[in-house]
Every structure is written in C-alpha cells, then in structure tokens.
Specification:
heterotrimer; A alpha/beta (about 250); B mainly alpha (about 230); C mainly alpha (about 280); A: about 250 residues; Rossmann fold; six-stranded mixed sheet; four-stranded antiparallel sheet; 10 helices; 10 strands; B: about 230 residues; mainly alpha; Methane Monooxygenase Hydroxylase, Chain G, domain 1; 6 helices; elongated
C-alpha cells in the first residue's frame, strides 16, 4: 500500500465560542488524494473541526481557535496569513445547497472567481470544465443563463460543488453534503466524491456511518469534542480499537 | 454509561440475541449427538445409534434457519465491527457444526455395525480420542459464549493431540491387518471410526479459530499459506 | 350542556358580526374618499390641466403643469438624498451592526421616524432657506429626503437580514472579502425587497404637505433649476382649497385625485414587483 504524504496536518487544535470549547486538542493527518470522513453523534464538534480547516470558524461571534493547521507544511494560522487566501486554497460545500439566487447557473459557477478577485479570462471554458467535473454539464448546458433555483436539490448541490471547484482549490471540505438529498441524488454525489479525490483531497463530515464507510479511506470518530479514534475506514468499521468507537459504530448510542 | 450497552434498535438487539441462541442450541445438540454416538459405539447399543441418526434432521434444519437469520441481519441492519464479525462467524461456523453433526451420524453408523460384531473392547486410542474430542467441543462452545480468545486458542492446539493419536492407531491397526487377515473387517471399521473422530477434531479446531476471529478480529486460519501481512 | 354551547355560539356570532362591521367601516371610509375624489375630480382632469400653467388670480382655466413637474423634481431629490443614506446605513446595521453603537443608531432612527413632518420643514427651513434667503426645491427635497431616511434604513436592514446566512457563508468560503460578498451576493439577493420598500417609502412621502409649505413654498410659474420656489401638488391643493374661487376648488379636486392616483400607482407597481420577484425566485 503506497503511503500518501499528509496534505493537511492538524496539531493540537482546540476551538470554541465564548467560554465553551467545541473541540479539544485534536491532532491528525489528512492524506492527499484521499477521502477522509469525520463521524460522530450530534454536537460532537465535527462541523467545528471542519470549519477550522478553512478558517471559517473564526467568522462566528465570539469564536476562538488555538493550535494549528498546516497545508503542505504551510501554517494556515500563522501571523501574516490572510484567511481569505486560505479559503481560496481550501473550498467548502455546505449541507443545504446554497446557489446565489440573484445569479444564473453560469454566473453562479463563475462567481467564485469574481468574489475572490481572480482574473476572469477564458470564463466559458472554465465554467464548462467545472460543471463537467461536478457531473452537471450535460444537464445544464442548454440553460446556463437561467436561474440556478430552477434546478432540483441534487443538481443545486452539484452546482455548488462546481462553484467551489472553479477557483481551483487543493482541498474540498464537505459538511454533510448529501443529508438534504434523496437517495439517488446522494448516490450521485458519492460517485462524484469518488471522482474528485483523484485530483483533490476531500474531507467529508457525515452523520451517516454507512456513507462514511462507502466513500472514505480513513475515518475519524469524534465524541464530545475529542478525537476518539482515527484509522483506516475498514479497520474502524470491522475492528475498532476503542470501546466507545465500537459502541457508536454498532449503534449502541448516538 | 452502562456496563454492557445494548443497541438502540431493540429489534436488532433481539435478532442478534436470537442468532446467538440458535447457535448455542445447535452446538448443544451436536454435543449430545457425539456423546451418544460414542456411547453407542462403546456399549454396542444399536438403538441409541439409531436415535442419534434421527436427530441429525434437526441439525440440518437449524443450519438453514441460522443462514436465513444471518442474511436478514446483513440486509436489514448493516452490522459493523463486533456485530459484523459475529454474523460472519455465525455464517461460517454453522457449516462446521453441521458437519460435526454428520460425523456424529457416521460414528453412530459405525457403532451399529460394531454392535453386530463379537463383543471385543475398542482400542485405547479411540477412547482417548473420544474423550479429547468431546472436551474440545465443549470448551470451544464455552469460549464462544464468553468470547474468550485464549480458551479458543487452547482448544485449537489440542487438534495436534488427536492427530497424533490417530496416527498411532493407524500404524497399529495396519500391523494387525497384515498379521491377522481375519481381523481385517473389524480393524477397518475401527479405523473408520477413528478417522471420523480425527475429522471431528479438525472441525472443532475450525470452530475455535473462528471464535478467535470473532473475539479479536484477527483471522488465524491457514498460518502456513499466508503471505506477509500489513 | 347545550346551554353552554349555545351561549358560546351566540358570542361567536356577535363578535364575528362586530368584526365584519368594523372591516366594512374601514374599507367604506377608503371607498368613500376614493369615490368622492373621483366624482369631484376626474371630470376636471383634462389636457389643459396637465399641460398649462395657472392663470392669473380671478381668471378661470389654466392648469397645474408646473406643480406636477415641481412635485416630480422635489420627490426625485428626496429619493436621491434619502435612499443612499438610508440604504448604506441599513447595510452597516445589518452586516456590521453588533454592539452598543448600532443599537443607538437604530434607536435614533426610530426617533427620527416619529418627528412630525412640520418639524422637518422647520429643520430644512433653518438649514437651507435661511442661508439661501429664498425658498427652493432643494429645501423641499431635503425635508422630504430626511423623512425618507428612517424607513429606508429599517427596510434595508430587515431585507438584508432576511438573506439566509448560508449565502454569506458560501461567498466567504469561496475566498471573498466581506464587502465584496455584501455587494455581489447579499444586496442583489435582497434588491427586490429593498426596491419595493423604497417605492412604498416614496409613496408615503409624496403626499406630505406641511414641510413643503415653507421650504419649496409655491410658484405660479415654471421654476427652472433647483434654487427657486417650486410649486408642488400638495401645496397647490392647499392654496386652491382655501381660496374663494369655484374654479380653483374644481382644480384642487383634480389635483387631489391626480395625487392619490399617482400614489396608488406607485403602490401597485411595488406590489407587482414583489409578486414577479417571487415567481422568479421560486
């Protein structure tokens, strides 16, 4: 088995709001060109952990972060680092599809470039390429200039993925990307994730254990803000080392 | 947190419980069959032998039921970790237990034949083998109940004992057959009986190895055929 | 127990009747005003009225073309003053407004909304008319513009707050600066609602008379530029209504009808915008 070099390294990450810590002292390494799943019961801190990776957590009121995250060795929380730059290298897709309602499909995909102030040459080719990568091109190529809201839930989510891909990130974070979708749309998103990992590093937060088992090569189990176990997915689901992981994975709580 | 938390899904918990019960019942049944078959052989009791052969039908029915239950659990509950190992254990072990039942039937058949022969004592190896095999099966079932990998390991190793006893008996019977052609019939039947016991021990060893897998998540079968693992 | 249920049903019926009566009363008043204005004014609304200047005192005929244009100018200036200030303040309160200072701003805005319109007139008079030493459209526009500010602020803030949080997050997650996400995503999403609110704000202010009485004052002629006293419909109605001339009374009715019709038109246009907006986004 080839060893993937760690793409993202999380070191003693502690973060929270006001007086409460949502996650405590989490350290792990996320591998390049692989899908890592983060699982755990509600309120365990998985979304907080994810949002610390692209410095979105700090946008909340009273939010604070201690510890570090490194991308290819670069400290993302270092003093001279601009969080906006971090978010261009690490993209994010949310639980509910959120295309911009005032823009057409084409404009939505291109919006990332406009918003991040990147040069917009060759826009049409880029939009097409992003939509193809998101497996949406064939379905929308004849109505690029219609409103994004006319699409179904699953299509909207793929549009959001295309939008995130258009700025060419190295890492894609997905916060329960399929939880608002029906099973067929979910399956397509999972297939898409499978394709995406060839070019990107993907981190998926999910409350659906079977989904984590299907799509990821490594899984991290969080409980009450702490990292309980992190291992290859097939090990975690057939022979976990920690009793609590075992109990969660077999459905004894959560 | 409770000592032994149960599954949030009560029906799932009930399914797993039911599976466990059936396996234990089946195990108990074949244990009885072996005991009675060997008793029939030693006591030259043809009626007891017949009773054993009848009981095999129950074992076969149980095998079908266990398979059905396992399939249902796999389809409906998506078992993971220890539950998954338990269900795969059950699927595999049930074939070994069914074979043990069949072998008990074979022993019973030999017992019927021996009952028709003149009342000569059986070789000591056979008595010894019967004793060991019965103890092995009993301890393997215990190890399953307690998920005790160490006890299962001990059982698996005793198979060597049985193999050694068999080889010993084989050599002796062969010598006997060469020296006394009249004794060939009887010697052959005794050899078959011993062979059944040796196969029995092999199957019990399989069961023990599967218990180790279930308890520890390590597959310890066929150590000599394996490549270097991760 | 049928006695209890009978009593309850009786009370229910009486209350229903009372409410129906009040509704009829409210609607009736509106219909009455509309009907009255229509009957009295529509017949006087003719081409001459719309295009001619007022005739000298005493003579009949003529129109209110200058007042129509004057109202237009003053309201345009009011919008140009009130909307940008109100809008930007609303953006500030919605997007950056946490803490004690924004709370004060909101409170002051609400207070401003409650200032009587004539006091606004005094404010504009002191600030513009006195230094300039004459009445002007600028003063009138300023008075009405300041009156538009509070509603523009609150509407903008409300509609921006109505934009779901995940749209802002999506924009930020793409690597956007905050101001850019506001300008490119949040405001366009709320644009329809804000525009509607401004139109309704304008409609509300279009009928104000008191502040105009001593800011833009009145004029029997055209008022080129912005520095002259300017005729407006509300002030003309006031002047003509209290005059002794029947012809002027007739023209006042026509002006009243025109004013009301215009305000209605703005209201209906605003609602049309909203409904079209909904079908567009769903």
């Amino acid at each position: 088995m080839s060893a993937s070099r760690p793409k993202l390294t999380v070191a003693s990450l502690t973060a929270g709001f006001g007086e409460n810590a949502a996650i405590r002292d989490i350290s792990l390494e996320l591998h390049a060109n692989a899908v890592t799943a983060i699982i755990g019961p509600s309120g365990c801190g998985k979304s907080t952990l994810l949002r610390c990776l692209n410095r979105m957590h700090e946008l909340g009121a009273g939010a604070w972060v201690k510890g570090g995250v490194r991308l290819d060795g670069d400290d993302l929380y270092g003093a001279p680092v601009d969080p906006v730059q971090v978010r261009r290298r690490i993209g994010m897709v949310f639980q509910r599809p959120n295309p911009f309602p005032s823009l057409s499909i084409f404009e939505n995909v291109a919006s990332g470039l406009k918003l991040s102030g990147m040069p917009r040459k060759d826009l049409e080719a880029l939009v097409q390429s992003s939509l193809e990568q998101a497996a949406l091109w064939d379905e929308v190529k004849d109505r690029l200039h219609r409103s994004a809201l006319a699409l179904s839930g699953g299509q909207q989510q793929r549009l959001c993925i295309a939008r995130a891909l258009a700025v060419d990130p190295q890492v894609l974070l997905m916060d329960e990307p399929a939880s608002a979708l029906d099973p067929i749309a979910t399956a397509r998103i999972e297939e898409l994730i499978h394709e995406l990992k060839r070019r990107l590093t993907v981190v998926v937060v999910t409350h659906n254990m079977q989904q984590a088992a299907r799509i990821s090569s490594h899984t991290a189990f969080l409980y009450m803000g702490e990292l309980v176990e992190y291992d290859r997915t097939e090990v975690l689901f057939t022979n976990p080392k920690v009793r609590r992981t075992e109990d969660y994975v077999t459905g004894k709580f959560g | 947190m409770t000592m032994n938390p149960t599954h949030t899904d009560r029906e799932y918990e009930a399914d797993l419980h039911s599976l466990r019960e059936r396996l234990l019942l089946m195990g108990g049944l074949v244990e009885e069959m072996i005991r009675d078959a060997l008793k029939a052989a030693i006591d030259r009791d043809a009626d007891l032998a017949r009773a054993v052969i009848e009981r095999d039908k129950q074992v076969n029915r149980s095998e079908v039921e266990v398979d059905k239950l396992c399939l249902r659990i796999l389809a409906l509950r998506q078992p993971a970790a220890s539950d998954l190992r338990f269900v795969t254990f059950a699927l595999k072990v049930v074939t070994d237990v069914e074979r043990i039942g069949d072998l008990a039937v074979n022993v019973a058949q030999r017992a019927s034949e021996l009952a028709a022969d003149p009342p000569l004592p059986l070789p000591p190896e056979i008595s010894k083998m019967s004793e060991v095999v019965q103890v092995m099966l009993h301890q393997a079932l215990d190890a399953f109940v307690r998920s005790d990998a160490e006890a299962a390991e001990a059982v698996a190793q005793r198979d060597d004992e049985v193999d050694a006893l068999y080889r010993q008996l084989f050599d002796r019977e062969l010598a006997l057959m060469r020296s006394d052609p009249a004794a060939v019939d009887r010697a052959a039947r005794q050899l078959f009986l011993a062979k059944h016991l040796e196969r029995l021990a092999d199957h019990v060893q399989n069961v023990a190895e599967m218990v180790i897998f279930m308890a520890r998540g390590k597959d310890v079968r066929h150590p000599h055929s394996r490549e270097a693992e991760d | 127990m049928s006695g209890v249920s009978f009593r309850r049903r009786a009370v229910n019926a009486v209350m229903l009747g009372l409410m129906g009566l009040c509704t009829l009363l409210a609607v009736g008043v509106l219909l009455f005003i509309l009907g009255f204005l229509f009957v009295k004014g529509a017949s006087s609304l003719n081409w001459a009225f719309l295009t001619k200047l007022p005739k000298p005192v005493g003579e009949s005929g003529g129109g209110m073309a200058n007042a129509i244009l004057g109202s237009f100018k003053v309201l345009a200036l009011a919008t140009a003053i009130g909307f940008p200030i109100g809008f930007l303040a609303g953006v500030y309160l919605s997007e950056y407004g946490h803490g004690p200072f924004p709370a004060v701003v909101r409170y002051v805005t609400d207070l401003l909304n409650g200032v009587p319109s004539i006091v606004m007139g005094v404010f504009a008079y002191t600030l513009v008319v006195l230094p300039m030493k004459h009445f002007s459209a600028i003063a009138g526009g300023l008075a009405l513009g300041v009156m538009m500010i509070p509603i523009a602020v609150r509407s903008t803030e409300e509609f921006l707050r109505g934009v779901p949080r995940d749209l802002r997050e999506a924009a930020m997650a793409l690597g956007s600066r905050k101001w850019r996400s506001i300008a490119s995503v949040v405001v366009p999403t709320a644009a329809q609602g804000i525009l509607t609110a401004v139109m309704l704000d304008l409609a509300r202010v279009a009928g104000e008379t008191a502040p105009l009485l001593f800011t833009s004052f009145n004029n029997r002629f055209w008022s080129p530029g912005w520095n002259q006293p300017t005729a407006t419909l509300p002030v003309m109605i006031f002047t003509y209504a209290i005059s002794p001339y029947d012809d002027w009374h007739r023209q006042a009715w026509a002006a009243g009808f025109l004013l009301l019709a215009s305000i209605f038109a703005i209201n209906i246009a605003a609602r049309f915008l909203v409904s079209r907006g909904f079908s567009h986004s769903h």
